[in-house]
Every structure is written in C-alpha cells, then in structure tokens.
Amino acid sequence: MHQLNKILLLIAMIFLTSCSYLRGDHSIIQNRTTDYLKAKSIPPLSIPPGLSSSTITAHYPVSNHIYPGSNIPVDLTPPEELTSS
Fold this sequence. Notes:
The chain is 26% helix and 0% strand. By secondary structure, it is mainly alpha-helical.
C-alpha cells in the first residue's frame, strides 16, 4: 500500500509538471488570440440557381430603434477617486 501511494504521487507530479509543456509557442496548445488578424476575406455567399431565399428568416432581428441616452459617454473613473477631490 505504501508503494502504491509513492507511485500515485509520482504520477501526479509528472502530470502537474507536464502542464507547462502543453502551453507555449512551440507546444501542443498555442496562444491563438491574434489569429483573426491573419484571416482573409472571402466572397459573399450566393444562393445557388434554382433555390430561393424566401425560406431564410431572421431568428434574432435587430431593432432600428434609437434609444435616448445611448450615445452618452460612460465615466470609468473609480468612485474612490471621485470623492478624493
């Protein structure tokens, strides 16, 4: 039983230290936060001949309504800095 605990501890240490090898520039999991900057434009989709767009509906339509006060800038100053002056 004592030998089994040592083996399990060794396996846990190997797994925990291997996490650092999974992330990085040349590793399995790479940082892809800026990959969208390399994207190329494609031509717009077209409806094939013989089909129509009458079955396409907007499931989540966007309103054209202009809400009053929606263009007011938001102040992001923390409250503690507003009271210190």
